Amino acid sequence: MIPERTIGRISLYRxxxxxxxxxxxxxxxxxxxxxxxxxTSAQVRRDLMHVGYNGSPNRGYMVRELLDSIDKLLxxxxxxxxxxxxxxxxxxxxxxxxxxxxxxxxxTAAFDKDPTxxxxxxxxxxxxxxxxxxxxxxxxxxxxxxxTVPASEAQGVADLLVAAGVxxxxxxxxxxxxxxxxxxxxxxxxxxxxxxxxxFARGNxxxxxxxxx
Amino acid sequence: MIPERTIGRISLYRxxxxxxxxxxxxxxxxxxxxxxxxxTSAQVRRDLMHVGYNGSPNRGYMVRELLDSIDKLLxxxxxxxxxxxxxxxxxxxxxxxxxxxxxxxxxTAAFDKDPTxxxxxxxxxxxxxxxxxxxxxxxxxxxxxxxTVPASEAQGVADLLVAAGVxxxxxxxxxxxxxxxxxxxxxxxxxxxxxxxxxFARGNxxxxxxxxx
Lengths: 213, 213
Hints:
Strand order of the largest sheet of chain A: 5-6-4-3-7-8-9
Structural class of chain A: alpha/beta
Oligomer: homodimer
Number of strands of chain A: 9
Largest sheet of chain A: 7 strands, mixed
Order of helices and strands of chain A: HEHHEHEHEEEHEHEEH
């Protein structure tokens, strides 16, 4: 079993490798990949041992081959269905974003508690009433969801989704979900990110600029 | 100077402490806070040395007092203006989200390249043409932005924002930004998060359920 943090970094490497390929690079050294991802090159080499692809000391890694190996590790063998729960502004933005991509992970069902949304199609994705989740999630083989409901509803909806068979939740609600240990939750926390960035922006502004009074 | 990762964790502790306060807890032990944030209790105690608030071995930390100390460290002394750039579905969702909160960080200006959006107000926030950023960003004292433009435009817009004085960017575009070293970027990467969650959901589904064939 590969540790969660390692998978997180390998997923970052993939993003950086795709950028690198788009920029026309055929090969990349571990120190270059490390610099793009903010880790050490020793870390990169250690993590990539899990991928089962070795670079050469002279030419580094072949970008295309390394990407293929990472895809094989991270991606489902066949296209996998994902659901989005909560079709508000944020949910629609995510549907539009994923709808336009040919990914192995496809959002094939949306859910909302608003009965006027059920039965409609948003950005190519069918919306169901949330009460249909118990039936639709197993029948579509859905294991992972993007959760974009209001904070006050997130825990109740998460409970219902887990009962329906969901094992992975990307949680956009600003609340910590209580889930059984077999369920993986990743929090997308806009506020915390903004706070962090703003903290450093203040410090860096002080370091690099004369005070604007 | 407190390291970036430490600030990230302290910001997570604050989130957990707010949850804890909302649940009615007056005090919390370092191991409880650690468990909520997925770190060790030794890490919590080490990080909180930067905050300048000490708990007691018998009662742990007083939640309210610890929160106040963290606020004092992380928050700006006075309310701080932030901008949002790119008023699409995602941008509007973020404006709605932040507009409803009384935070020290306030989104006081939005920018979009679409001339039909300039001059309008979205969720209480005035939208300017992107060409006005060079004037509005310094005059509003804006140091940090939420960047919600399409990937193809993100680098160009980031360049323009940095030139206008921006020092912190929460980047929602699925592209790695090249910025000078004095600019802090945090990537909100929906795809990578979903990939990671889906990877573990598959593994956990295999561990905890009979195969559905």
